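Aim 2 progress update. The chain analyzed this quarter is reproduced below.
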Amino acid sequence: MLPPAAPFPSPDRPTAHAVRRVREAMLRLVHPAEARISPDGATVAVTAMGPDHTRIVLTPATERSSAGDAVSAADDGTTWRHTPRWLPDSRTLLHVAHPDEAGEPGEAGEPGRHPHLALLDTVTGAVRTLLRAPGEVEDLLLSDDGTRALLLTADDGAERDGMSLGLPVRLGPAPDPERFAPGLGLRRLHLADLATGALREVGPEGLTVWNAAWRGGDLAVATVSEDTLPSGYYEARLAAVDLTTRAARTLYVPEGQLTAPAIDAEGRHAAVVEGISIVAGRPVVVDLTTGEATHRAGPEDVTWLEFASPGTPGGSGAPALWHAGWDGFGSRVGRTPAGGGTEASWSCPVTLTGSHFTPALSLSADGRTAAAVLDAPGRPAEAVVAATHGPDAWRWRPVTSLNEGLRIGGLRTTVTAWDSPDGTPVHGLLLEGDGPSPAGPRPLAVLLHGGPSWLWTSAHAPGDVLGLAPALAAAGYLVLLPNPRGSSGRGLDFARAVVGDVGGRDLEDVLCGVRHLVAAGRADGDRVAVLGHSYGGHLAALAAARTDLFRAAVVVSAPTDWSSFRDTSNIGGGYDDAYRIHPARERSAVAAEGGSGTPTLIIHGAEDRVTPVGQAHQLYRSLRRAGRAPAELCVYPQEGHEFTDPARVLDAAARAEAWLARHLPFDGTGTRTGTHTDMDTGSVTRAGTGTGTGTPEGGDGP
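Predicted structure tokens:
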């Protein structure tokens, strides 16, 4: 019989103070979620997500504005404004507004449960509300002539995936009882006339639409499925949708999953990305007349596509195809001719993102200027612009200073590499305090990202796993962020390498990374902890159960029993089929064995619909029955797959740090924390295999 768990300790240790300080600073950061450049290339509209408010910031594309400059004159602090879309006049901005109708924030902290479509005159600041959207607006597409908009909306009660909190859409109070039946929770297409505000549904009847592309007229392309749950996303197909008749014609049935559809201005070609799970993959181009589908050779890990407009550089004849995606720990942007040929691409060692926090660009009408959001070590995320041609091509310049004075300093990011037993090279990031390294090996915290087709990138403050990576590094831990097999950034074959082998070679890649750092004298083999979120939590739980390599484990929002997951998760039957997780029980953490027992803290949101809280209870009970090591479960009310309430985020981070402190003898002594790295001198360094140290890495960062 195990003794009762010790009470939650008071944060009177240096490591606890450092973790809280960094996590509080991270919560104060403003996240530029999207940067849209005007057609004339003169102005950038930025969705700025602050700690308690989301607004649209306008800034000239030729200079840098601070956090308080050029904000919409209509911003009164109570209406959240986001998803900006420029009209052709480069003056009027179509956007989504969430009014605070009830005077208080709505569900999941979102004020105003009924979104509106509005037009902002960026010169006068005047706003004209057009219409009340019939559902949560998940995408907003504008016709090339600026007269109509296509809204992708989710019905009240529609289920969201793990990237969107794992909570259902709520346009009003939570229903009592909540009803589940076929056909509920659809995602639909609606066409809006911007002159009259008239709105009509135009999407395919009986199908849910996951994402869409449209340039105007009666033709759109979309990824669709019969299943309204996010599990249906895993079996979605590409379809041409007639917006007049609402008929859908299948264009392409993939082997994996689809995202980022695009359509050219003439309506002759469509394109889509085919990948796996959280999609990054290869472009597929479809001739809309013949139905012929061509897999485009060259680009890998693509997350965004857009056809070049006629007359733009590279756009003569069949339109060129712009693309952006992951590349190692950074990003890659480029163009390929629609008919094939040599790819022109540029790699950037930092992260360039768009509206879905994946690599994406916004282009001016002539295609000569691009805008994005850049995130890098030592540089909080800001909107940036770059020329796409000429001697200064892809040299990114910041145009906002939303986080001036709020950067998370005192950290150094390096790249390390090792080989798995079968010879596969694996890469990871190391985070540590930027002061002098103490003599001898360090306590090591290994943080595992979700997905698995996600990745750790060269970012200012990596946010997965409760945002603990920079916090633990500042507290004196050596932090390893590995990208094992299954991760993005190394091509689709690397991402698919875990299909039929989850918890196999990917886990071995992680374990080899730990052994590599211990053998190199960087990490203390007696003071190693593993932490993971979502699929990373699954790997962390497996590592804790199968091995004696770790002294503590923290499992956050994880699937722990693939059998019950299939029948209870809103992605069950889609996700597990995509990764061929069969037989399910043998690959589940609740059935894992081999080690003598690792103290395990389980953290979960009570409202998580992606990995339902029952998964956490199953793991906790299996660990308690085994009785080999301490186990503890903390369930947070009103939280989903990702935590959003600041107080709960801080509490969960504090409990994770305390768990590590309880089971790893470490107090942070000898490590300098709390210093700041200047935004203009922070850099990524690259290490040779087996070293973990190196020289500054080049690139066109700001």
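The mean pLDDT is 88. The chain is about 15% helix and 35% strand. These observations will guide the mutagenesis experiments scheduled for the next reporting period.
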